[in-house]
Amino acid sequence: MNKIFFKKIILIFWIIFSLNSYVCANEKKIKIGVLVPMSGDNKDLGHSIIKATKMALKDVNTYKLEIYPKDTASNPNQTLKAAKELNKMGIQIVIGPIFYNNLIHLNEVENIIFLSLTNKTINLPNNVISSGINATSQLSAIKKFIKLNEINKTIFLMPKLDYEAEVKKAIKESKIKIFNHYLYDTEPTKLTKQIEKITNYKTRKQNVFDEIKRIEESELSESSKERRIEELKKRYTIGKINFDSAIISDFSESLKSVITSLLYTDVLPREKYIITFNQWFDKSLLNEKTLQPIYYPSINKKNLDKFKEKYYKEFNKEANHLGLLSYDLVGLIYYLSLQNEIFEPKKLFKKKNIFKGKIGVFDIQNNKINHKLNFYKIDQNKIIEIF
């Protein structure tokens, strides 16, 4: 009798296992294309993103998702060819391409939704969603910081470069209040003259000489005159600056040049808030103590550091920040698939949805992805989280 009972138990387990296996085998898998450069100058970046998506797949731990990488060679025509190959495989959702100029032909593959890693949002094909850290997301975080610190007058400094329209669109969408908006040349001599004009530097400098002359001609005692004049000679300018904070939409050495020009015109970061766009935790800014404090929005630094550490252990290579974005996009696709019985990418990104990833919070609606960012300052050679 014990043998018969034992056989029945084995039979029941075998039936359950077989049914589960059947369901798993027959449940429709979600195929995710990954369009990145796997050859050419940007191949290392492309392979880093592929590794990050595979790491995400491993962490999600599901049989439901599959990754299919294809090479763009950082070329728009090759990108279109690779996209068409993914389309023939029945793939409806793709992570990539990385670069904005590779998007131009993708409206020809209308059955696929592309989650591009670009942060540009203007003139995208209808089936391309920008998932990068766009200007609207950054200005929304800056707007929150300005409100928290009760900053009244903010000027906006922007270089004469090709992303002017993108930033102007973001200013409008974020509804941030800008007191004055200035465009500047990146050439150092022109830049300094423009900053002088913005800060009313010549008048403020002349005020020092005028005040010295006034003291000299006054009826004060000679000792008082001497003391007051010595104090004035230590000053570069006299007079108020007509703003409380400056947002500078610039990066790297060009950003440093702008802040240095502000210092030259006696605008001090300790007295006026110097706010920039996302610097991706540029380590070179840590060494520029005279330019600090510098404030900026960015992705969650703790999560980025953890991701880089895990990536290094897995592949013995340094991770790129776009790897973390790609990692999160796999999680986002999986999350949306769980929220909907039928996986239809064209409809999924139209609905309002919020997804918390490693980068931060994804805000999804009307085929747009915005990010709720953290905020940091660099001060005393340290990166400090504000919110």
**Order of SSEs, N→C?**
HEHEHEEEHEHEHHHEHEEHHHEEEEE
Quick one: biggest sheet?
5 strands, parallel
CATH architecture assignment of the largest domain: 3-Layer(aba) Sandwich
Quick one: how many beta strands? Answer: 15
Q: How much helical structure, as a percent, in the residues? A: 40-55%
Average per-residue pLDDT, rounded, comes to 91
Task: Describe the fold and architecture.
The structure is a single chain. This protein has twelve helices and 15 strands. It is of the alpha/beta class. The chain folds into three domains: 28-132 and 301-371, Rossmann fold, CATH 3.40.50.2300; 136-199 and 241-298, Rossmann fold (3-Layer(aba) Sandwich); 205-238. A five-stranded parallel β-sheet has the order 2-1-3-4-5. It has a four-stranded parallel β-sheet with strand order 7-6-8-9, covered by helices on one side. Helix 2 (43-60) links the parallel strand 1 and strand 2 (65-71). Helix 4 (135-148) crosses helix 5 (164-174) and helix 7 (201-216) packs antiparallel against helix 8 (222-233). The longest helix has 25 residues, at 2-26. The N and C termini lie far apart (68 Å).
List the helices and strands and how they pair.
Layout: H1 2-26, E1 30-36, H2 43-60, E2 65-71, H3 76-88, E3 93-95, E4 113-116, E5 128-130, H4 135-148, E6 154-159, H5 164-174, E7 180-184, H6 188-198, H7 201-216, H8 222-233, E8 245-248, H9 252-264, E9 273-276, E10 294-298, H10 301-315, H11 321-339, H12 345-348, E11 353-356, E12 361-365, E13 368-372, E14 374-379, E15 382-385
Parallel strand pairs: 1-2, 1-3, 3-4, 4-5, 6-7, 6-8, 8-9
Antiparallel strand pairs: 10-14, 11-12, 12-13, 14-15
